[in-house]
Design a protein that fits this description.
- With 275 residues, the chain is of the alpha/beta class.
- The chain has a single domain, classed as Alpha-Beta Barrel (TIM Barrel), CATH 3.20.20.
- The chain has 13 helices and nine strands.
- Strands 5-4-3-2-1-9-8-7-6 form a nine-stranded parallel β-sheet.
Amino acid sequence: MTTQRFEKMFAALKEKNEGAFVAFVNLCDPTEEMSLEILETLAAAGVDALELGIPFSDPCADGPVIMQSAKRALDAGAGTAKCMNVIEKFRDRHPDMPVSIMIYANLVFAPGIENFFAMCAASGVDSVLIPDLPLEMREMDPSFDNAAKAHGIGLVAIAPPNARRDHLPILARASAGYVYLLSRPGITGANNPAHMPAEEIIEALKKANAAPGLLGFGVSTCEHVRHALQCGAAGVIVGSAIVRIINEYLNEPETMLAQITDYVRTMKAATRMAA
């Protein structure tokens, strides 16, 4: 049975008539120690959940801001085991915070699929998003789903804005924790503004009993948050706008953490205003 942290979070937010604000950052950027401090700052500022990246040398879905962050982490010696160590330390202090990780398939194959999901479970991960693992591959090779299920980890599926309507029920069954709603095709980046997915896609997913949808890619302003919730999304995922603060204030850690706090509080407030 998968963990219930995402389900409990969405239920609690629904009671308060709020949307979810989920923050994305790369783990071990710029160091293990500072990475943990950034996660603590995000939690204290009011994020509802975290989606955490495992740095990879050739990310196909990441824009230049997040790629810069990943390279910095890799140059400092980041690896999957070190990233899991950061998550484990965070989990010890935050037993109820939902935590998802975004990782590319090569990094799952490296330790072995079974070993990877065992590491996730041991570290306190709830869900895993593998952007270069299409549903067709999961259907042909159930190794990912079987290993995830065996270790109580949810696999997150991506719903693009041009998703075929007859494909949505399959996608709904394949996603646990949440559905990643793409605001637009392409790569991440706050410089590429979000576009709202067709409301009928969100409605179709709900009718198919899909996990709640979180809108990502280009979400960076309060207006984006309000519009996403108005379209029926359960919340938003914001990455590049936060990582840009880390990039900009890398040599001024106190200022960096203060800027992150201010930004997250402002964005989280928009989830209440939109409700």
